[in-house]
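Entries read sequence, tokenised fold; example below:

***
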Amino acid sequence: MNWKLQALPGVEPPRGPVVVIVMDGVGLGREDEGNAVWLARTPTLDRLMSEHSWVPLKAHGSAVGLPSDADMGNSEVGHNALGSGRVFAQGARLVNDAISTGAIFESETWGALNDRCTNGGALHLIGLLSDGNVHSHIEQLFALLDRAAADGVSKLRVHPLLDGRDVEETSALRYVDALEEHLAKLNAADGERDFRIASGGGRMIVTMDRYEADWEIVARGWRTHVLGDGERWPSARAAIEALRQRDPEVTDQFLPPFVVGDDEAPVGPIEDGDAVVFFNFRGDRSIEISKAFEADDVPFERARRPDVLFAGMMEYDGDYHIPSHYLVAPPAIEKTMGEYLAKNGVRQFACAETQKFGHVTYFWNGNRSDKFDDELEEYAECRSDLVPFEQRPWMKAAEVTDLAIEAIRSGRYPFVRLNLANGDMVGHTGDRRAAILAVETVDLCLQRLVKAVEKAGGVALVTADHGNADEMYQWDKKRSGFKADESGHIEVKTAHTLNPVPCVLFDAATEQKRSLRRDLDTPGLANVAATVFELLGYEAPEGFEVSLLEDDRGE
């Protein structure tokens, strides 16, 4: 393998670093009262987009390897595309293909799961219940249920995690009812079959922590799913309705855990001899629960650890092989920008707060946990606050900015990348006022960053991985207006958007000022990597999407 990067003739790299600033969740949406990005006071971003060259980038659907352009982008596939410079088939598409071809059920793992569950064990399916298609999809769950029934599994328990983040914020009953109906049909087809919902809870409260930000979320899930320990209800619907009545302001993602059962016992704790599938395909919120089942040591008391066969929908960490068993192999992303730079002796610096740290490292590097070269790469993490993001919409943006500016000023790193998480994490809360403050925080940090880049004689690419804060209200296409309930209250949107994102070139090296191309049909996030190579004075490796830079070298 030839890793040598070729120098671009006639191009001198800037005196300072090339810096990629990812404004997470800041998209280009309709200029209306639902757009927190438009409503926010953003003098720095406004100035950059008026005085410097910029282009809109596609950040969803086919541009990031998802099944269709109806699929919203997300931070994981977005950072995969930014770091790899190419488009790879991603989680949802891989799983759909494996289901449609039957390959998922021909795998050794499915066979082992089936063996357990046709010999006395129960099959437990844990995961996010919605059609958001970011972490999971309800139709994929239905496919697993149908095949389990066809293969002779007689006892199955589903432990749904409620969404309200990638779908409407109080839509849980729609999915729970659909699941109950599907289970009822399977049970009716065979009087010996016992398929039921056993436990659940909101995704931000139960099971789906990420980056070890709050292991208590996983502990809560363990007590709920495995031990069957918690407040009991006769059904999932009864639990959700009662919990909403208890707290009318709570949205699905923050609903407390619930256990289905009666006065005598829960219907579905996980026991020795059972099998468990975590049916999310996205990795970041799947790793910790996988460790809870497989690792000898975890930072919470498990009370008991049943002897089960655990499998993920996918392998969530390819370096550490988490989990040990999985149904669908993740995309093989190799030869990323980070690996090429490391093999050519180019120092790199990456920083973000906990919520997005894995995105500028693991996902940027093609789903790789380790560095390519310990001597040439430095990663810095700011621990995220353990409070609801709408309560502190500034999050850790200032601290991340401090770290990035220190790296820019040091002169040690030709390439610096950072993520400002505010637009996405606060956008997910549905709180428009907080989202406006979040975007204004990002803009204030952006002002400091470009000033540091200019002083260092560097170049910055200011972009985003997908939209979110640019649509805080649900939009009704038929009415060309915001959706509202019977009382006239506008429906909040907490999911990502299908909007493009900006990519601004801030070139402080005035002697060779460059512009971004406007002649590409549908430039996307994957075009950024080749652009970085060219700004650093290198030709992009073969197979990378083309650079966004205009060729003004007179060739």
Observations:
- The two ends are 29 Å apart (CA to CA).
- The mean pLDDT is 95.
